[in-house]
Each structure stands twice: as C-alpha cells, then as structure tokens.
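Reopening this one. Same input as before:
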Amino acid sequence: MGVASALVAEHQVQRGGRPYSQGFFRAPLAVTIVLFLPLGFYLAYRFTDWSVMYTFDAPRESIGFAAVVALAYLASFCAGFAMGVAWLRRGQRVVARLVMGGVAVALGAFTLATWSRLMQVGTREQFLHGGTEPFLSVRALLIPNAAVGTLYAAGMGIALFAALRAGQRHRNAPA
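Same output, byte for byte:
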C-alpha cells in the first residue's frame, strides 16, 4: 500500500515537494494506524498461531509479540512509501509499478498457497493434529477481520481516490 500511495503522489515528488507532509502519505497512514494496528495486535495476541499460519511455535498471548506484529504493519507501509518516493525521484516509475504489482501477486499467491491454514483456527498443536475449527465458525476472529478488512479497503480506496483527484487537479491547473 505504501508504494501505491507514493505512486499517487508522483506529481508532488517530481516537482520536488515534500510528499510526507501531504495527504498522499498522511491519509493512508492514518487508516493504517486506526484500523490495522489494533487489528494486527488483536489477532497476534488472541489468535497467535493462526496469525503466523502455524509455521512456528509463537509465544501465545504475549503483548510484546503482538506489538511487534502490529508495528510490522506500520513499518511495511512506511517502508513501501519511502521506497516508492525514492524510485520516483530517480525517475524509476516502472520499477515502483513492477514492485507494487509483484507484491500484490506474491500476496495473492501466498494466500492461495496457505488457504487451508487460513481457513482453520486453533493452536499450532491443534493444527498439526487436525483439531482446529473452521474459520467461518470463529466469530471472535471472523467479525473483526471482516469489519476491519472492509473498513481498511474502503478507507484506503477513499484516501487513494482523494489523492488521485488532487493529482488530476494539479495536472489540469494552468501553469
């Protein structure tokens, strides 16, 4: 999402502006902080093994582990935006677009590859021994995930649409 936000701020970056002080960065950042950080913390704390797709025995109900996971959401957005801005300043728009597309494809592929893990909820031991519950039956996971996912998509959509409109107005403004 960070690279996408940087691409939306392209006109600001190319004219030497300060993209971090504009809505191109701040609006999606606010959505990430308000929605993704609390959800990331909740899921990592309450559904630790599911959050890490049962790949390792993570510390359950650990505030420290949950905080690291939640902050990783924030760090990935900020790092993506910073890399996008750097590529745009070097005139490497194609690189930014390829990375953004590549990450989207990789996340989609990862989701498909781990679908069976994603759709089962329980501890790592339960997963390894076939004792998990179906995702759709675990309301404490399903409801916040669906609600925040919908709000996040809507919020990011609105933020990016507003940034695109601002960019269009800038390009159409008389010189």
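So the earlier flakiness isn't reproducible anymore. For the record, The first helix runs from residue 2 to 8.
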